[in-house]
Amino acid sequence: MNNPILQDFITLTKTGLYCSYGNFYLDPQEPVLEAVISHAHGDHAVSGNENVYCTKATQLFMQHRYKKFAAANFEVKAYHEKFEINGVKISFYPAGHILGSAMVLMEYQNVRYLYTGDYKVEPDVTCEPIEFVQADVLITETTFADPEVTHPNAEEEIKKLNSVSSNIMLGAYALGKSQRLISLINKHCPNKKILVHHNIMPFVNIYEQQGIALGNYQVYDRKMMKQQLEGNIYLVPPMVFNSYIRAINVVRVFATGWKYLQQGNGIHLYISDHVDWQGIIETINEVKPKEVWTLHGDGKQLKAHFKDQLTVKILN
Question: Is pTM, for the whole model, over 0.85?
Fold first, then answer.
């Protein structure tokens, strides 16, 4: 006999996603006693939790960012390793989003609930490739859950930088996106020199300590940008990118899947670390859930698409 899906197994509270059956939170937005953290981006991993369950890379990124406030205690788990919190069995599977990102499989009363965190299905040599696992309930992000949204091929997008001879200021998130871009530029724009902003360097170092080879780059050097007015790509975090709005002698480019962030830039560079519409459909086909619960973004179009085939519940 199949056990029923518990509709309140995961609920959205002001603190974040809460599992009352195991008394823990998934990616809480404020400090809690038991936090299961999918990956180290700041909107999923806050400081000050008591016990944090996560992968090794997520621990290292959090410790760099939050220092002694990262967590009172880290319970580091390998992918596929089973552990329990108050009777709920949990295991991590690669999410393909950034290094160390995990989907969280929770098993309770013989029902399997899979929380994706942020994820992507496209190939990316700088992180573990996504690993699909079947579940009764898929709890998915819907950042780009719109049939109109198709992310172009990242390798083709990065080649656009070859058409620019002058220096480029390239804005990107310091963790995950920047490391992916360094690798892509080395592979597909071999004549470009990569200069990395000092705030991005600690994350680059952790990637390399974890065995990810990114290729050539050097720490930003102002003299070099001034003396060589061509062929350099200066990789900067969003805050720096936005503060140098009138930077001279550079073409401004920002790597993102969001259209509105492309406005006013020299070229549009659509490189996203989230699933697009096709990616979500592929995931649903692979996970084979009986129900899909949606988060982050808008699940309305997904609900309409699966109207008579699948229960889609919008959590946010």
Answer: yes
